[in-house]
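Hello forum,

I keep getting stuck at the same step: I have a sequence, I want structure tokens, and every attempt I make locally crashes halfway through. Rather than fight my setup again tonight, could one of you with a working pipeline run this one for me? It's a single chain of 231 residues.
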Amino acid sequence: MRAMEVMTTEVITVEPGATVQALALLLSKRGISGVPVVEGDRVIGIVSEGDLLHRAETGTERRIQRQRPRWFDDRPRESSARDYIKSHARTVRDFMTREVISVVDTADLAEVAAVMETNRIKRVPVMRDGKLVGIISRANLVRALAAAKSEPAATEGDDHSIRQKLLAELRRRDWAKLSADDVIVKDGIVHFWLGEQPEAERRALRVAAENISGVRGVEVHIVPTPLMPAF
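Reply #2:
Ran it on my machine without issues. Output:
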């Protein structure tokens, strides 16, 4: 399988001038842990919930270390300066990670997994001709694994074609309340990852999939709705 077959295509992004509070609200409301930072059509950075762990507003900023003599190694001072920026900066551009690690949409999932593991990251932007076309998280890879079976495989092109046709059909239906990353096709089997959709909508999704040429079966996986933390 390739990145384009499992990536989330409706990418939530943030602008570099967004405030810290706006970013925190976006992550909370969308239930995501990180987003690319875009300027125009370019990805210039990435931010995650980890960047918001130590903030002055919540009293969680890192403790200030004892002042060191001037002749001492400057590296701890540089680290303290970076910590200060992360805990006090008002806009995303000041603390975003600027060295963005990405993959192309034709990369196979083994390559994507290796990139994420090597760089210890939880998500990676997917690019095509230098433009952002999707994002892959660890959850996308886990779902792809869950969809994999040791059965006679359809061709990779068939799976991709089935997924694209099905997504196009669902976009035309106002009852189809799910995102592209909730649909994975593997060996001709359509896998839906659903939450609290009404039973009628689940049946409609199954019918829509079964009407796509080449579909060999449909499997529905129920994802428990996470409880919102109490503040």
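Residues 1-144 form a domain with the CBS-domain fold (CATH 3.10.580.10). If your local run keeps crashing, start a new thread with the error log.
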